[in-house]
């Protein structure tokens, strides 16, 4: 059970300053729009917090059917994957980022071969809940999610969407309870990202065959034995941190640990 509430709150409250600018080739006026500055939650997804960004820039683009254009974001020439949490994207590109994070807004030439389409927030909701279900299969064989009611799923989503810590965690705590306190979760839901923006998932238990708690070092030895540098949420956790504790306290709202390995 996740019980270090101050850690959970600190992770939840993480924000990133972003400076959005419209791609210069898409501006239809001599005088382009001002940049749009925004503090975005690390744990959220860009489509959930960029409505104001769209409204700010959409009237300045060259098009008759402006509302039909899907907005997408780019950093240093790389399209940003909306289905990655914002904090994960920042951690992946952290070596190249200076704050505020300068991100270019596009409404044209959608990169079909790189990004999934996201026409509305319902698409994000479906993806988010599918991740939670996948994580619960790893942790509890899917038993917790399957026992939840529709209102619980709605509360998880609403808590994330509206940045409501207590609302989200009143349900999410059930997903963070181990069926067996001694052994912890069945497997630890995690994704390890390399600098190439690819991630690896493997089945890793939180304890070894002797019942001893595994640590972050054990996970790295199993997944990336040649790497010892890992960070998440902009911090470098000690390699001796127990995996079970990390899963309960440092997971993103999708219930996965997102670890950047360098």
UniProtKB/TrEMBL annotation:
GO CC term (a single one): phagophore assembly site membrane
GO process terms (BP): apoptotic process; autophagosome assembly; autophagy of mitochondrion; cellular response to nitrogen starvation; immune system process; negative regulation of programmed cell death; piecemeal microautophagy of the nucleus
Membrane as UniProt keyword: yes
Domain of life where this protein originates: Eukaryota
Domain Autophagy protein ATG5 alpha-helical bundle region, first and last residues per copy: 122-177
Localization annotation: Cytoplasm; Preautophagosomal structure membrane
Ranges of residues in domain Autophagy protein ATG5 UblA: 11-107
Domain called Autophagy protein ATG5 UblB: residue spans: 187-261
The keyword Ubl conjugation is assigned to this record: yes
Similarity comment: family membership: Belongs to the ATG5 family.
Function per UniProt: Involved in autophagic vesicle formation. May play an important role in the apoptotic process, possibly within the modified cytoskeleton. Its expression is a relatively late event in the apoptotic process, occurring downstream of caspase activity. Plays a crucial role in IFN-gamma-induced autophagic cell death by interacting with FADD.
Oligomeric and partner information: Conjugated with ATG12. Forms a conjugate with ATG12. Part of the minor complex composed of 4 sets of ATG12-ATG5 and ATG16L1 (400 kDa); this complex interacts with ATG3 leading to disruption of ATG7 interaction and promotion of ATG8-like proteins lipidation. Forms an 800-kDa complex composed of ATG12-ATG5 and ATG16L2. The ATG12-ATG5 conjugate interacts with RAB33A; this interaction is bridged by ATG16L1 and promotes ATG12-ATG5-ATG16L1 complex recruitment to phagophores. Interacts with TECPR1; the interaction is direct and does not take place when ATG16L1 is associated with the ATG5-ATG12 conjugate.
UniProt protein name: Autophagy protein 5
